[in-house]
User: Fold Family 32 glycosyltransferase from Cryphonectria parasitica.
Amino acid sequence: MDEEKGQFSAQSSPIREPSFRHTFTMHSPVSSSSPRSSVGTWSPATPNFSHKFRNRVPTQMRRCIPIYLACVSLILLILNADLLTVAVPKSGGPVFKRGGTRTNGGHASVPMAQGFPKKVWQTWKIDPLQFEERDSTTARTWLQKNPDYRYEVLTDTNDMGYVELHFGPGGINRPDIVEMYRSITATIIKADLLRYMVMYAEGGVYADIDVEALKPISRFIPDHRYDENDIDMVIGVEIDQPGFRDHPILGKKSQSFCQWTFMARPRLPVMLQLIENIMSWLDGLAKEQNVPVSQVELDFDQVISGTGPSAFTEAIIKQMNLDRPKGTPEISWDLFHELDESKVVSRVLVLDVEAFAAGQGHSDSGNHNARGALVKHHYHASNWPSRHPRFNHPAYGSVEQCNWDANCVAKWDADTAAFALLNEEEQRNLIAFIQREQQELLERQEAFLKALAQQQVQQPLFEQPALAQEPQAPIAVENHHEPERLPEEVEQNPDAERDSDVERPQVEIAEVERTEVGRTEADRPEVAAEGRPEEHE
Assistant:
């Protein structure tokens, strides 16, 4: 009766269905001994609910529900199809999607070239449109040699925006890096740090503004020897002088990789580690000097070891050891000493010194005409040592002037050691004597250059060539030497032999040549030192 009554009531007058709030209260735990336990818990799958649901939903709509669900599933599958093609690089870098693009916190992607972005990065004070001629000349070589690459310059006016974009909340979200970069005032420190940040954020090829491209970037990785997929970074040797590793001044700079030009994939752990190392180093210096980071004072050697080639080299070798296979020997600079040809170590391609640092005059760097020379560093933008002076002895100057010449360095060491044994008065006298000598030498050089300039004004070194003259008739040469007569001529003209007033052609040269036959070079006093006979009248 209750069931029939319920059915009749549903047809004759609407009965309010229980709300979800009331329905969920039926899920409260009920003991098995309770009188309500026979009722059981409610669920949408109970026959009573299904019966009521069918009564409330039209039959045609119920039949279309599976089709609706299938369409929604298909749309979701299409929209997220690219998730099926995601691949994570071995280097722990960014996520690469099909089509060669890189996700970067929602920002514009950079075209990829087999994993390396096809982009050249440079940093400078001003916009490229305002470059001086020498900077424009070197910058254009990168575009001329690599027409399929993009080119971008970060300047003193847009660098902060780049850092905030890629390392702020919209990028990798490292506000500590952003604030550290904002607080740095030393331009060379910002320049070093910025190149590492760019290479971590986007990768590609970095080159200093005074570096000229001699060969295309495609030559950075020899195709016949290496697979680009096995390489995450391309670097080159700069200084290979391990014999000075224990020198108190030259030691930290004696073995290093070049960081004025290198190529890297984005998001390499070594680049982020290098950035963090610099931050920690600056914090330590600020505490030592009891000043904020913006007021830290740095000398030449601190820049080299803190952010420059020494810091760059130390971080790379440390990462190489972290990535080397277990059980293999520890990697040190000895592996790269006197490197004759490139080698891959822990997915880093190391090129010989000739590739990025030719023409230095040390480290067996060769010259820029060599086949293996890829770039040429002109050094015209390297004036930062004037603001961060290197150690300069009051009497003998800096040891770097020796340019890694062993004899020169040994003499500098001996002279400075002897100077330390002198008393203060003797030291002052020696310094004054050396300064007078240097001043006299400078004055003589200036006088010579002044005299040379005056001479060039009065008589140019390169005079204008004389204009070509019209050809003239040969000049008759009077000859008093009578040549030998052939028998035929004597028979034809017997009186000509007695005619001494007739002009005849000169034959002295032939006579000289005949007299020279049979004489060696050693018998000829007129032969010059370079092996060519001197001219005589």
Remarks:
- Residues 121 and 152 are 5 Å apart (CA to CA).
- The chain has 16 helices and 14 strands.
